[in-house]
Structures are given as structure tokens and as C-alpha cells.
Fold these 3 entries.
Entry 1:
Amino acid sequence: MGKYRLICLEGGEFVDDDYRLRCDRHSGLLRAEYDAVRLDVKRMNGVFKFYDWLPVASIIDTDAAPVAFRNTELSRELGLKDLLIAFTGYYPERGAFVRSCSFKEMEALPTMARIRDAKKGTVVVASAGNTGRAFAHISNVVGMNSVIVVPERSADRIWVPDDRGYSKLMTVKGDYADSIAVSERISSMKGFVPEGGARNIARRDGMGTVMLESVISMGKMPDYYFQAVGSGTGAISAWEASMRLVADGRFGTKLPELHLSQNDPFMPMKNAWDDGRRSIEKKDMENAERNISEVYADVLTNRNPPYSPVGGLFDAMTACGGMIYGVTNEEAKAAERLWSEFESAVPDPAASVALASLIKAIGKGTIDKNRTVMLNMTGGGQNLVHKDVTMTRIERFAAVDANVSDDELRRVING
Ligand SMILES: *Cc1c(COP(=O)(O)O)cnc(C)c1O
């Protein structure tokens, strides 16, 4: 399409884009190299104002985009001189209209456009939370089909403002891993494609818009970037966006340090990073099931994050510097109470973890309080959106067993 080229970060070769998620020879991530070195923000409301740096030809008409703002009282309370808050959720008072209430919608928007551009089929998403809700919503906005696969017990978590029947909800008996396995089997069938996670450049560059919005609003890059991580995709995206902003030349030359957080007691990436390892090992995830069931922010409990591959989180941390904090449920809830003294949109629990990590960093002296901090509040505003918008729960169209046969699965999905 003559707007970007796709490069394999492991082998360095260019690969043709046809909704590609990996190159044929390597397991590293692919990255888009955009023709536009200088970011020209378009005059429109939604996230496609960053069209130059999104891997799409077409755009989707939307008012959803991240916002960036300051709160001088909260900054003073924290003792920070220069704090910028990025918020992606529903918060009209602050100009934010992300109705699925998290930055996953910034991934869903360009991903759906990229699939449409490549004339690919129905996207398949395994998620019982923010990702599933974001894709269900956007597929109804655009009028493109999607299949959301969730564990039976999470069937009531997928609601949308505008159910036009484009998003189909399938439940799988068993745990989340069973849903992922079934979703992979569906997405390998003819006419279906996986959403691709961190391997999808559209997901990463969509999330990278949070950094773009923040830097454009400040006129400079932050010194520190704070975010709670589950897969680490958001932080990889922040790194990649920062590299593009450095190349742009107007916003500074130093990559922001990544100050990331996981919800204690499930912290595989923190454990591996603290140990100086590129690989996540068994000992980083002991008692995974129990620990996952205990955390406040369950969107942060990814068991298979893109930490090790070339271009993944380990490389991002190595390039930017920084650290990963462990945050307990109590610390996250205390941070949420502090936030709520100053702001009316209730944060997603994961965003509360990020704020708690900032409080921790200040307490421990791991950052200089006089420097510029960007706090990525990755989700919030469910308390507000339900007042303004009538949401419809998506009814499931099929319930299957984890060991459903391929024939049966094909019959169900096409029937
Ligand atoms: C998914 C999610 C995260 C974690 O993002 P990753 O890219 O998976 O690390 C943080 N906050 C919210 C609200 C999320 O939905």
C-alpha cells in the first residue's frame, strides 16, 4: 500500500504484508517501518488521527482515542513536579469516549481495519475481559464479523453499546487455556483469522497511540513511563512509539524508562526480569492457578507473554531501562482510593496497579520526582459509561466442550 514496510526484527528481512503475524523463518516480532518519519496528526477526533503511524489503508469512523491530561492536585499529593496522565476509557468530562473502557479498543480499531484492508475473514478472539469486549464492540461498529471465545463462567462479561449481531459469543467448558485452544482451532480454519496478540503490528501500533497522544500534548517525551503489564504488549508499543518519536526529531532523543508493574502474587515477567533472564521459567509461575485466582487485576495474568522473542518485552526493557514492580491487591486498592479523591472515572483495577507502582517508586526513590512522568491509566470509566449508554450483553450462540471434534466445531461455527 506504499505507506509502510514490514520488517522481521530477527532476520532483518522485509516481508510482504498480507495480514502477516510472523515471518516464515524466524520467531521474532515483525515491525512496521512507516514512510512518514515526521508525525502529522490529522484533523479528526478518533484514534485514526494518528493514521501516518497505523498500519491501515482504511479508517473507521470513531470518536474513541486516548486522552492526556494533568491533575495538579494529584501531582502535588504525590510530590511530582511534572506528571502527565494518559487515560483510555470512558470519561466525557476529560474528552474520552472509549465505550469498552480500556486501551484494548485502541488495538481493536486498527486491527479490524487491517483485516478489512487485507480482505481477510472473521477475526477470532479468546478473551473474557477487556480484549473480548473491545473486539465485540468494534466489530459491531464496523459491521465485520468476529467470534469471541470465553470460558463458560465468563459468558456475562461481554457487553456492547450497539449489538447488531456481528459478534458471536462462544463458550467453552473448562478454564481459560481451553478457550484459547478452541480459538486457535477456529482461527486456523478457512475464513477465520486470529487477532494475533503482540504479533499483530496493528495491535501494537494502536496501543502506541497512547504514547503519541501524550507526547503531542506535552511537546516532549516523558522521562518515565508507568504501566501495569499482563502481556507487555502495551509497553512494547510504548517503546516502539518512542523510537519513532525520537526519529521524528521534535520531541527529544532519549527513550523513556519503562516502569512496569504486575499484580503480586502473579508476576512472571517481574521474576524473570529481576533475575536477569530473557526466558520465563517454571519457577517464575509457581502456584499459577492459585495466584491468578487471588489477584485484583485479572487482565494482568497472562501466562504466555511475548517477553522473550526478538522485539518483545525483554528487548524493550533492555533498550529503555527501568524496572518492574510488584503491587499487592491492598496497594492497588489504596491507590484507587487516592485517585478517586481527585477524579470521577473509576479506574480499571489494572490502572490502579499502575498508580500504586508510581506511589511505590516515589517511596523507594527509584525515580527523580522533578522529572517528567507519564502514567498510563489503561482503562476506566465503567461507572460512567453505564449511566450514559445502555449496554447489551451478547448472547452466546454456541457452547462447546474443550475436546469438541473439528467436524463438530466447523458445523457449529458455520451453522
Ligand atoms: C490488557 C490490559 C493491561 C495490560 O496490557 P498488556 O499489553 O497486556 O501488558 C493493562 N490494563 C488494562 C486495563 C488492560 O485491559
Entry 2:
Amino acid sequence: MTKVSIVRCFLLLMHLFRYIILINSLHIPPPLPLLPLPSYSQLQWQQREIIMFFHFGVNTFTDSEWGTGKESPAVFNPTHLNPDQWFRVAAKAGISLAILTAKHHDGFCLWPSKYTDHSVAKSPWKEGHGDVVQEFVAAAAAHGVDAGLYLSPWDRHDRRYGKEKAYNEYYLAQLQELLTRYGSIREIWFDGAKGSNAPNMSYYFWDWFSMTLVQTPDGWEMKTDLLGKLLGLPSTGHHCQLAMQALLKCDVSIRPGWFWHKSEEPKRLSKLLEIYYKSVGRNCVLLLNVPPNSTGLISEIDNNRLIEFRNAINTIFSHNIAQKCVIQASSQRGGKGSSFGPENVLDNDHLWTYWAPSEENKQDQWIEIEAENEGLRFNVVMIQEAIGLGQRIQQHEVYVDGKRVANGSTVGYKRLHRLRVKEVNAKRVKIRVVKSRDLPLISSIGLFYDPYWHPNKS
Ligand SMILES: *[C@@H]1O[C@H](CO)[C@@H](O)[C@H](O)[C@H]1NC(C)=O
Ligand SMILES: *[C@@H]1O[C@H](CO)[C@@H](O)[C@H](O)[C@H]1NC(C)=O
Ligand SMILES: *[C@@H]1O[C@H](CO)[C@@H](O)[C@H](O)[C@H]1NC(C)=O
């Protein structure tokens, strides 16, 4: 070899070397997202965790749950209606969105609609000059809570109901009235509830949605029960799945009924916590109904129960015992030192930093938390997926000191396992992903102690 070619060869090698070093010091990018992905507003919605419903209307005064539509507007007469009091309670309970029944199945409108006289305008309340929707929206804004409205498609009062075109026109007109008259409405709630002998009639859901889109260009959220079914969308495919994602909610009333009844009382704290574990703890948003009473206020007893519920949640989840532990995993995308290490599940940025296993090792993926000194005393295990990149886990198991204590299917935004025992005192907690649609991406793991949990009592 000539001198020149040796130098050339040397330079080439140097170049290659630099290139290899450069590659090694660069970060490996995140894995590709797995469709369907939640939209921005769906992510926001999921993170609300608990939202509120206010069922209020003629039923509040007639001691019924489903009005007949024949109620006289004269029965609607709250003596001290004050939505500001409702939102004082809601804000204290950490609620960020509340929905009012602007019209329930009985057809009575809580606002003076131009299109019907079956409304507050014909009631003795404020001599017919009141507007509950307006007071509701103003109070929500004053307390920094988003306002939503429920407008029942089923209407037992209006004569147009059953005449498809006429009724859909009426419904759309009311929707437009609500969306234009009151400023920022963040959410419109539709559902398909209707009595078994109600007239056979189609709802023009597409028109209703389009109207909502046209009227609320700014960050709207729209939810409906059984959306996919109502729209006749196929049960597979991204569109439907995306639509269905919006339906991850559980609606529950704090009392036995949806409307206030003198004879009823709110549920016990232990029951509310059970509902919390079964809804928020299973990747759902909890829509909790707290009905105002016939005075027009939230009863003291409901008020107290709601605050008690919020305080209990704060107490349980304020201290993540896993935080002071050592953590390791079956593998790590990009190897040690990459930005996908297991330590990400213990940081405070819940959704966008996560543990990712390597692509090569698809068998037996796990992540394990180990106590440094004294044992870990807990009875709740929390797992969260990085759902911004798509939900993946299909089956998982939780082991405490080598013994399986819980298992489940999907995880999603949040999965809570309340153990079957009052508490455990352990050295190691392992979460195994048994089956997933693609590489599992876990954004958060928590171990908590729930002092309200008495497994033998319930
Ligand atoms: C309502 O209409 C649907 C579709 O047109 C039909 O299948 C169903 O039998 C009807 N039900 C009644 C109670 O008329
Ligand atoms: C409604 O709740 C308020 C506030 O607790 C209370 O003062 C009022 O007596 C209640 N009304 C009825 C009818 O129970
Ligand atoms: C949980 O474990 C039980 C008992 O082994 C099993 O029957 C069940 O299928 C498991 N469930 C899930 C979702 O993995």
C-alpha cells in the first residue's frame, strides 16, 4: 500500500469511528404511535376524572324520576335557587366540568325558549322572568368550572315528538338557542334514552353534531351514549373506536335517584369510593350526579358527603409509596441511559414520559419496584399507560413478593387495583404485561395506602 492510501484508509476509519460515536450519543426516538390515538380534547376529558351532573327540573317538585310531560309549569318554584352555591360545592370538590339538565324527558325547559311555552317562563319562579341556564353558566364561569348542558332528545311534552322532520327542527332550534345565547358551553350531552312505548322516530344526530361543531369552534367536547350504535357505525375501525373512546364514562347519582327526593339520602363514603375504583380506576370518567333540592340548593348532607369523598381521594393518593424505591425492568428501549428507563414511571409528568421495553425482547415484559429499607405498606396499585401514543396493554398481572395478588385486562389512562386484603407489607412489587397490542408504554406506577378500605365489610 502506498503512503497516501494508508493515510486515506486511516482518515476513512477515523470518519467511521466518529460516525459510530455520534450515533451512540444520539437519543433513540420514541416508538411509533399505535392507532387509534385520543384527540387533544379526549385527553383533556380523561384527565378530568370526576365531573358533575345536576338533575333539576319539574321532577324535583313532583317527587318523580321520569316526568310524564303533563306537569304544569306552575309546580316549578324554587324559593332560593342559587347555582352559585352549587358551584361553591363543585369547586371545593375539585370538579372541572358540570352539566345541567336544561331539558329532561318531561320536556320542561329551564330556560325561556322561544320555541315552546313549556318552560320557566310560564312558572311562578321570578314571576316567569327567570333563566336557570343563564344563572348556571354565569355561576360556573365565576368559579372557573366548565359548563355543559343536557338536552334530552326524548320529549314527552312536545306534540311534534313523533313527527320526524318537525321534531328534529324543534330540537335543532333549541340546541342553537343554547349554544348561542349563553357564551361558552363546553359540552352538550345527548343520549338515546326513551320509553319502550315512545313513538318510533329517528333523531338527526349528524345534524345535531354538525350544529354543535359550527356553533362551538373553540375546544368543544361532545359526548353521547352509544354514539357508534346510534350513528350505525361499524363496530370496528378507527372512526368508531375514536368515537367510542369518548364514551368511557360511568354516570352515577350520589343518591338512589337522579332527582332530589325528600325521602332519600346520599350514598355512604365507602360506596362512593367503590364507585371511584370501578370507574376512574378502570379508565373511565366518573360523571357524578348531585341533585339540587326543591329550595334550589344542594342539600347540606350531599354537600358534606361530596367534600368527604374528595378529601378521602386526596388522602389516599397524596403519597406514592413507590417514590422512594429502586426500580428495574425486563429491558429498556435503547438500552441503559436512554430516555425510556423504568424510572420514568415514578416522575410527576404522568403521560409523556414512560418506560418502554426494547423491541427485541417481546416475551415476559415486566417492571419491578423494590423497597430500599423498610417494607412497603399499601393496598392500592395504580398503573397508567402513555395513552398519547395509543392504548396497548391487553392483559397484566401484579405480584407482591412473588405472589400474584391481582390481574386484569386493559389499563389505559388509569387502572387501580385495590387489593383483596386490608394491607400488605412487602419488599417487591412486580407488574407483568402478559399480552399487549404492541410494546407496552407505562407512564406511571403508584402504590398507595387506602385507610378507608375494609375488605371484610363490603
Ligand atoms: C320502528 O322502526 C324500525 C325501523 O324502521 C322497525 O324495525 C321497528 O319494528 C319499529 N318499531 C315499532 C315499535 O314500530
Ligand atoms: C335544601 O338545601 C338547603 C341547604 O342545605 C337547605 O337549607 C334547605 O332546607 C334544603 N331544602 C329542602 C327542601 O330540603
Ligand atoms: C385473572 O386470573 C384468573 C385466575 O387465574 C383468570 O381466570 C382470569 O382470566 C385472569 N384475568 C385476566 C384479565 O387476565
Entry 3:
Amino acid sequence: MEEPDKLARIVDARMKLKARFEEKIRNTPSVADTQPQGTGNLNRHGMPEVPVGQTITQKWPVLDLGYQPDVDLTRWRLIIDGAVENPVRLTWDDFLALPQTDDTSDFHCVTTWSKLNMHWKGVRLMDLAALVHPRDKATHILCYGYDTYTTNLSLEEALKPDVLLVHTFEDKPLAQEHGGPVRMITPQLYAWKGAKWIKRIQFLTADQPGFWEERGYSNTAYPWRNDRYS
Ligand SMILES: Nc1nc2c(c(=O)[nH]1)N[C@H]1C(S)=C(S)[C@@H](COP(=O)(O)O)O[C@H]1N2
Ligand SMILES: [Mo]
């Protein structure tokens, strides 16, 4: 039987990734910061729920590069390549057949709005990494949108359990204007680190800035220290 084998391989790959990145994750700002700056109640990670300089909004503003690609599900593909042993090109059905995760998390935009307690469903970046087997030299990812947007992340940030490629928001398909059919979310970092209309995740052996990082946004993008621009 192939299925149990496949599952065993994914579990094994996950355990290895976890072991490899556990300490680095413990040292990321959103885990290691003993004096996070912000106001409000403590959130689910023990952080003040409103990071410094942010204001809560109930609405959900739309930010893009002036173009919202319309990606039909029959044509949709997700390429995961670069410094990996098993590059993949997933169809929509392939993507939905992967382990699905429900999560509630917050969204902090660098333009100073935050939206709290958003309910998502999608696939963990960690589970996608387990599928492709990053090479030992892999340290970062570069994510590409169908609109030509790019953004980079270190693997210790990308492998956190709330980093998801989401297709569902509040039990409905993610709206096109917000990056549907699938976008990434990075709840512990400013939201520009999550590519809307995601089409490719490239594993890298050295950091490489994305669209906003090349234009003066912070590479690290940590909300609880006002880490907005470099
Ligand atoms: N593909 C793509 N992803 C993107 C962007 C973009 O312009 N293109 N903008 C980023 C920025 S700056 C933010 S704050 C969030 C905004 O997501 P929203 O429009 O759903 O609020 O998406 C991020 N991801
Ligand atoms: Mo943003």
C-alpha cells in the first residue's frame, strides 16, 4: 500500500525539519522577545494583541500592485522548487488532498491596521516543506504571486505552525481581491510577507529580498518592535 508509506515519509520529514529548525524558531523575535511592544490583551502567543503603532479595523482593506489576477482553478498550479530534493507542481486537487489545517490568527499590515481573530483553512507551509524535502543548505524561501509580486522569508519564520497557504476564510472561498484562490499568511510578521495569488515557492540557500524588501521595507518585518522599514 502506498498511502501509509507516503504518510510515514511526510511524518519523518516533518520531524527532521522540526529538529533542524526548533532552536532557530525559539530564537525568532516573536518567540524570544521578552518585552514585545503593544497594547491590549495578550493574544494566543502571549503577545499584546495590538502591536505598537497599529489600530484595529473590523473591515479588511485590500492592498495590491494595482492588478488582481484571475486564476481559474483548472489552470491554477503551485510550484515548489529550488533547494529541495523533490520539487513539485501541484494541481488544485493535489493541493486539497494535502493535510488541511484550521487556524485562527491575526493580520497586521505595515500601513498600521490590524485585523484580529481571522479564521482560516489551508495547508501549512511546514507540510509543503515536508513534501518537497528542503536540502540541508536551504535557509530561506522566496514566494511569487501570479501578479509578479515576490516576498522572502527565513525558514525559521516560514515553518511556524500558523504560516498557512489559505483557500478558505470564515468558511467561504478566499475572495479574489484578498488573494484567492490561495494566498499565504504570516501572522507573526507584517502581512506583506504573505503572498496573495501564490504560484511558486522557491527554496533558497541564501536570502534574497522580495518586492517590498528591495524598496526599503524591513527584511525581518517583526510587528512588536515597529520593525517596518530598513
Ligand atoms: N501577490 C501579492 N501579495 C501581496 C501583496 C501584493 O501586492 N501582491 N501585498 C501585500 C501587502 S503589502 C499586504 S498588507 C497584504 C494585504 O492583503 P489584503 O489585501 O488581503 O489585505 O498582502 C500582501 N501580499
Ligand atoms: Mo502592507
